[in-house]
Amino acid sequence: MKILVTAKRVPDPNATIKVRPDGSGIVTDNLKYVVNPFDEIAIEEALRLKEKHAGTEVVLVSLGGKASAEQLRTGLAMGADRAILVLSERDVEPLIVARVLQKIITDEKPDVIFMGKQAIDDDSNQVGQMLAELLGLGQATFASKVVLADDQKKATVTREVDGGLEDIEVQLPAIITADLRLNEPRYASLPGIMKARKKELKEIPLEQIGIDAAPRVKILKLSPPPKRQAGKRVETVQELVQLLHSEAKVI
Q1: How many domains does the chain divide into?
Q2: Is position 13 within any domain?
Q3: Is the separation of the CB atoms in 32 and 74 below 8 Å?
Q4: How many CB atoms neighbour CB 105 within 10 A?
Protein backbone atom coordinates (compact mmCIF):
# COMPACT_ATOMS: atom_id res chain seq x y z
CA MET A 1 0.00 0.00 0.00
CA LYS A 2 1.14 3.53 -0.77
CA ILE A 3 -0.02 6.57 1.22
CA LEU A 4 0.59 10.12 -0.01
CA VAL A 5 0.52 12.94 2.56
CA THR A 6 0.73 16.72 2.10
CA ALA A 7 3.07 18.80 4.27
CA LYS A 8 2.77 22.58 3.94
CA ARG A 9 5.29 25.05 5.39
CA VAL A 10 3.47 27.59 7.59
CA PRO A 11 4.41 30.14 10.27
CA ASP A 12 4.69 28.73 13.78
CA PRO A 13 1.22 29.13 15.40
CA ASN A 14 2.95 30.20 18.63
CA ALA A 15 4.79 33.05 16.91
CA THR A 16 3.62 36.65 16.96
CA ILE A 17 2.47 37.57 13.46
CA LYS A 18 2.91 41.18 12.35
CA VAL A 19 1.47 42.76 9.21
CA ARG A 20 3.73 44.95 7.07
CA PRO A 21 2.97 48.68 7.31
CA ASP A 22 1.79 48.78 3.69
CA GLY A 23 -0.50 45.74 4.17
CA SER A 24 1.24 43.77 1.42
CA GLY A 25 1.89 40.72 3.60
CA ILE A 26 3.28 39.60 6.93
CA VAL A 27 6.71 40.34 8.35
CA THR A 28 8.81 37.23 7.74
CA ASP A 29 12.13 38.37 9.25
CA ASN A 30 13.19 35.91 11.97
CA LEU A 31 9.81 34.16 11.71
CA LYS A 32 9.89 30.47 12.59
CA TYR A 33 8.19 28.01 10.23
CA VAL A 34 6.80 24.54 10.95
CA VAL A 35 4.81 21.77 9.29
CA ASN A 36 1.16 22.79 9.14
CA PRO A 37 -0.27 21.23 12.35
CA PHE A 38 -3.16 19.51 10.55
CA ASP A 39 -0.72 18.09 7.98
CA GLU A 40 1.44 16.84 10.86
CA ILE A 41 -1.60 14.96 12.18
CA ALA A 42 -2.13 13.52 8.68
CA ILE A 43 1.51 12.35 8.59
CA GLU A 44 1.11 10.68 11.99
CA GLU A 45 -2.01 8.82 10.84
CA ALA A 46 -0.20 7.58 7.74
CA LEU A 47 2.70 6.34 9.89
CA ARG A 48 0.31 4.51 12.22
CA LEU A 49 -1.25 2.75 9.24
CA LYS A 50 2.24 1.90 8.01
CA GLU A 51 2.98 0.25 11.35
CA LYS A 52 -0.23 -1.81 11.12
CA HIS A 53 0.11 -2.83 7.47
CA ALA A 54 3.47 -4.27 6.46
CA GLY A 55 4.96 -3.07 3.20
CA THR A 56 3.28 0.34 3.30
CA GLU A 57 5.15 3.29 1.79
CA VAL A 58 4.51 6.85 3.01
CA VAL A 59 5.31 9.61 0.50
CA LEU A 60 5.25 13.29 1.46
CA VAL A 61 4.57 16.12 -0.98
CA SER A 62 4.83 19.89 -0.59
CA LEU A 63 4.52 22.92 -2.85
CA GLY A 64 6.76 25.86 -1.97
CA GLY A 65 10.23 27.33 -2.05
CA LYS A 66 13.46 25.49 -1.32
CA ALA A 67 13.00 26.30 2.38
CA SER A 68 10.05 23.87 2.43
CA ALA A 69 12.59 21.04 2.32
CA GLU A 70 13.08 21.64 6.05
CA GLN A 71 9.47 20.68 6.79
CA LEU A 72 9.67 17.66 4.50
CA ARG A 73 12.80 16.53 6.35
CA THR A 74 10.81 16.80 9.58
CA GLY A 75 8.21 14.43 8.15
CA LEU A 76 10.93 12.08 6.94
CA ALA A 77 12.45 12.12 10.43
CA MET A 78 9.06 11.13 11.85
CA GLY A 79 9.18 8.01 9.68
CA ALA A 80 8.00 8.80 6.14
CA ASP A 81 9.90 7.02 3.37
CA ARG A 82 10.49 9.72 0.73
CA ALA A 83 9.36 13.20 -0.25
CA ILE A 84 8.53 15.32 -3.29
CA LEU A 85 8.93 19.11 -3.33
CA VAL A 86 7.29 21.07 -6.15
CA LEU A 87 9.32 24.27 -6.28
CA SER A 88 7.58 27.63 -6.41
CA GLU A 89 8.99 30.71 -4.72
CA ARG A 90 5.68 32.57 -4.93
CA ASP A 91 2.46 31.80 -3.09
CA VAL A 92 -0.11 29.88 -5.08
CA GLU A 93 -3.85 29.71 -4.58
CA PRO A 94 -5.78 26.54 -3.55
CA LEU A 95 -6.93 25.58 -7.06
CA ILE A 96 -3.36 25.59 -8.36
CA VAL A 97 -2.25 23.49 -5.38
CA ALA A 98 -5.04 21.02 -6.13
CA ARG A 99 -4.01 20.77 -9.78
CA VAL A 100 -0.37 20.22 -8.84
CA LEU A 101 -1.39 17.46 -6.43
CA GLN A 102 -3.64 15.97 -9.14
CA LYS A 103 -0.59 15.59 -11.38
CA ILE A 104 1.57 14.11 -8.60
CA ILE A 105 -1.14 11.66 -7.55
CA THR A 106 -1.77 10.59 -11.14
CA ASP A 107 1.93 9.71 -11.43
CA GLU A 108 2.34 8.15 -7.96
CA LYS A 109 -0.99 6.25 -7.86
CA PRO A 110 -1.33 6.11 -4.05
CA ASP A 111 -4.02 4.03 -2.34
CA VAL A 112 -4.80 6.73 0.25
CA ILE A 113 -4.26 10.49 0.19
CA PHE A 114 -4.05 12.15 3.61
CA MET A 115 -4.18 15.92 4.02
CA GLY A 116 -4.70 18.39 6.82
CA LYS A 117 -8.27 19.71 6.78
CA GLN A 118 -6.83 23.21 6.27
CA ALA A 119 -3.61 25.20 6.50
CA ILE A 120 -3.35 27.57 9.45
CA ASP A 121 -1.87 30.42 7.39
CA ASP A 122 -4.77 31.06 4.99
CA ASP A 123 -7.44 28.77 6.56
CA SER A 124 -8.91 28.15 3.11
CA ASN A 125 -10.08 24.55 3.69
CA GLN A 126 -10.46 24.08 -0.08
CA VAL A 127 -7.66 21.94 -1.51
CA GLY A 128 -8.90 18.55 -0.30
CA GLN A 129 -12.37 19.05 -1.73
CA MET A 130 -11.07 20.50 -5.00
CA LEU A 131 -8.60 17.64 -5.37
CA ALA A 132 -11.28 15.00 -4.86
CA GLU A 133 -13.38 16.60 -7.60
CA LEU A 134 -10.45 16.88 -10.01
CA LEU A 135 -9.49 13.23 -9.49
CA GLY A 136 -13.06 11.92 -9.36
CA LEU A 137 -12.38 10.25 -6.01
CA GLY A 138 -14.40 9.91 -2.82
CA GLN A 139 -13.57 12.19 0.07
CA ALA A 140 -13.89 12.10 3.86
CA THR A 141 -13.17 15.48 5.41
CA PHE A 142 -12.65 16.46 9.08
CA ALA A 143 -11.64 12.92 10.05
CA SER A 144 -11.31 12.11 13.76
CA LYS A 145 -10.93 8.32 13.24
CA VAL A 146 -9.84 6.21 10.28
CA VAL A 147 -10.12 2.42 10.03
CA LEU A 148 -8.98 0.56 6.91
CA ALA A 149 -10.69 -2.67 5.89
CA ASP A 150 -8.58 -5.82 5.99
CA ASP A 151 -8.52 -5.95 2.17
CA GLN A 152 -7.43 -2.27 2.08
CA LYS A 153 -10.11 -1.51 -0.50
CA LYS A 154 -12.23 0.78 1.67
CA ALA A 155 -12.02 2.90 4.79
CA THR A 156 -14.49 3.77 7.52
CA VAL A 157 -14.04 7.37 8.63
CA THR A 158 -15.56 9.14 11.61
CA ARG A 159 -16.12 12.80 10.71
CA GLU A 160 -16.60 15.79 13.00
CA VAL A 161 -19.72 17.66 11.89
CA ASP A 162 -21.81 20.44 13.42
CA GLY A 163 -24.29 17.98 14.94
CA GLY A 164 -21.67 15.66 16.43
CA LEU A 165 -19.99 12.70 14.71
CA GLU A 166 -20.75 11.01 11.40
CA ASP A 167 -19.45 7.63 10.19
CA ILE A 168 -19.01 7.18 6.44
CA GLU A 169 -17.42 4.53 4.26
CA VAL A 170 -15.29 5.42 1.24
CA GLN A 171 -13.81 3.26 -1.47
CA LEU A 172 -10.04 3.56 -1.88
CA PRO A 173 -8.25 5.43 -3.30
CA ALA A 174 -9.83 8.41 -1.55
CA ILE A 175 -9.00 11.82 -0.08
CA ILE A 176 -9.06 11.95 3.74
CA THR A 177 -8.49 15.27 5.54
CA ALA A 178 -7.36 15.17 9.18
CA ASP A 179 -9.05 17.03 12.01
CA LEU A 180 -7.52 18.00 15.34
CA ARG A 181 -8.65 14.97 17.35
CA LEU A 182 -7.50 12.29 14.91
CA ASN A 183 -4.26 11.66 16.84
CA GLU A 184 -1.31 13.19 18.68
CA PRO A 185 1.72 13.49 16.36
CA ARG A 186 4.97 11.92 17.50
CA TYR A 187 8.26 13.74 17.93
CA ALA A 188 11.09 12.91 15.56
CA SER A 189 13.72 10.75 17.29
CA LEU A 190 17.44 11.37 16.95
CA PRO A 191 17.91 8.18 14.87
CA GLY A 192 14.98 9.31 12.73
CA ILE A 193 16.59 12.69 12.17
CA MET A 194 19.86 11.03 11.13
CA LYS A 195 18.08 8.66 8.73
CA ALA A 196 16.06 11.51 7.21
CA ARG A 197 19.23 13.04 5.78
CA LYS A 198 19.70 10.01 3.53
CA LYS A 199 16.09 9.61 2.40
CA GLU A 200 15.03 10.69 -1.07
CA LEU A 201 13.72 14.24 -1.47
CA LYS A 202 12.91 14.89 -5.11
CA GLU A 203 12.57 18.49 -6.34
CA ILE A 204 10.36 19.32 -9.33
CA PRO A 205 10.04 22.89 -10.71
CA LEU A 206 6.41 24.02 -10.88
CA GLU A 207 6.87 24.82 -14.57
CA GLN A 208 7.69 21.16 -15.21
CA ILE A 209 4.29 20.03 -13.89
CA GLY A 210 2.64 21.41 -17.01
CA ILE A 211 -0.36 23.27 -15.56
CA ASP A 212 -1.61 26.82 -15.84
CA ALA A 213 -0.35 28.41 -12.62
CA ALA A 214 -1.58 31.92 -13.37
CA PRO A 215 -3.29 33.38 -10.26
CA ARG A 216 -7.03 34.06 -10.37
CA VAL A 217 -7.26 35.71 -6.97
CA LYS A 218 -5.38 38.84 -5.89
CA ILE A 219 -4.94 39.83 -2.26
CA LEU A 220 -5.38 43.58 -2.11
CA LYS A 221 -4.37 44.22 1.47
CA LEU A 222 -3.84 42.55 4.85
CA SER A 223 -4.74 44.21 8.13
CA PRO A 224 -4.36 43.08 11.73
CA PRO A 225 -7.50 42.45 13.79
CA PRO A 226 -8.68 45.39 15.91
CA LYS A 227 -7.48 45.49 19.48
CA ARG A 228 -9.94 44.14 22.01
CA GLN A 229 -11.52 46.73 24.25
CA ALA A 230 -11.28 46.43 28.00
CA GLY A 231 -14.18 44.75 29.76
CA LYS A 232 -16.54 46.38 32.24
CA ARG A 233 -17.46 45.28 35.73
CA VAL A 234 -21.14 45.62 36.67
CA GLU A 235 -22.72 45.55 40.09
CA THR A 236 -26.22 44.26 39.32
CA VAL A 237 -28.07 42.12 36.81
CA GLN A 238 -30.18 45.12 35.88
CA GLU A 239 -27.07 47.10 34.96
CA LEU A 240 -25.80 44.18 32.85
CA VAL A 241 -29.10 43.94 30.99
CA GLN A 242 -29.06 47.69 30.36
CA LEU A 243 -25.52 47.58 28.90
CA LEU A 244 -26.35 44.59 26.71
CA HIS A 245 -29.31 46.54 25.39
CA SER A 246 -27.81 50.02 24.99
CA GLU A 247 -24.13 49.36 24.16
CA ALA A 248 -23.71 45.77 22.96
CA LYS A 249 -27.15 45.87 21.30
CA VAL A 250 -27.56 42.10 21.57
CA ILE A 251 -30.95 42.23 23.30
Answers
A1: 1
A2: yes
A3: no
A4: 20
Quick check: pTM over 0.85?
yes
In this structure, is residue 242 part of a structural domain?
no
Residues whose CB is less than 8 angstroms from the CB of residue 4 and which lie 6 or more positions away in sequence, other chains included: 59, 60, 61, 104, 105, 108, 110, 112, 113, 114
In a domain, 155, yes or no: yes
Q: What is the DSSP string of 140-195?
A: EEEEEEEEE-TTSSEEEEEEEETTEEEEEEEESSEEEEE-GGG--PPPPPHHHHHH
The pLDDT tens digits of the residues spanning 84-137 come to 999 998 888 999 999 999 999 999 999 999 999 999 998 999 999 999 999 999
pLDDT score of 110: 97
Residue-range definition of the domain harbouring residue 213: 2-218
Residue 42 lies in a domain: yes
